[in-house]
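Appendix C: a fully annotated inverse folding record. The material below is reproduced so that readers can follow the format used throughout the book. The structure is listed first as tokens, followed by the designed sequence.
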């Protein structure tokens, strides 16, 4: 199978997940999604009090080598065993999620365009660009509702690691993008262009 591999990057709360969801809704079973966050290193040697202090917005927090191996397997038509991460315990679980190759594989994460090894695998590199004020509001809502975190812990983490790491790694990775989508899923012109490219690939496979 000829797998189209698409990397979707952008700051935390930029709208990457919305864009991913829209692509999934449009192309259904032809699309599989893999998240860079599932590849956080285990850090199971650290007690919980220390794990929460880890800078998860730095490239060295990710087991990107494993992700590269899994993506190469999918590109080769082979299934991959994707790790499952527990965001409330800040640890990788022993569970895995088997993913079989589909016509399109989306790889979502804030740093996927900052990693050269990943960029070289992607057929299309997308950066979702959204105003910082909107991003922090979205992050607060998400982490409180879905990850059980407090407002104080979210804002402290944002100022200590998320903001400086965005400026150091995420924002500069925009130069590696083939497509920059302003506003994420609320940019119909950019969406149509991306949808057309995906549709052409699916039709040709």
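Designed amino acids, in order:
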């Amino acid at each position: 199978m000829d797998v189209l591999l698409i990397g979707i990057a952008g700051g935390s709360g930029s709208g990457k997940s919305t864009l991913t969801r829209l692509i999934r809704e449009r192309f259904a079973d032809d699309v599989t999604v893999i998240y860079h966050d599932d590849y956080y290193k285990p850090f199971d040697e650290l007690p919980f009090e220390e794990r929460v202090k880890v800078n998860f917005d730095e490239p060295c927090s990710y087991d990107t080598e494993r992700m590269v191996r899994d993506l190469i397997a999918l590109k080769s038509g082979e299934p991959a065993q994707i790790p499952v991460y527990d965001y409330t315990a800040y640890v990788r679980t022993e569970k895995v999620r088997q993913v079989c190759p589909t016509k399109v594989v989306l790889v979502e994460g804030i740093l996927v365009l900052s990693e050269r090894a990943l960029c070289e695998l992607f057929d299309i590199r997308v950066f979702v660009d959204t105003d910082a004020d909107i991003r922090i509001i979205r992050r607060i809502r998400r982490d409180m509702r879905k990850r059980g975190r407090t407002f104080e812990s979210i804002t402290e983490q944002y100022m200590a690691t998320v903001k400086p790491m965005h400026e150091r790694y995420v924002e500069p990775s925009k130069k590696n993008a083939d497509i920059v989508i302003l506003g994420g899923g609320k940019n119909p012109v950019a969406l149509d262009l991306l949808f057309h490219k995906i549709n052409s690939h699916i039709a040709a496979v």
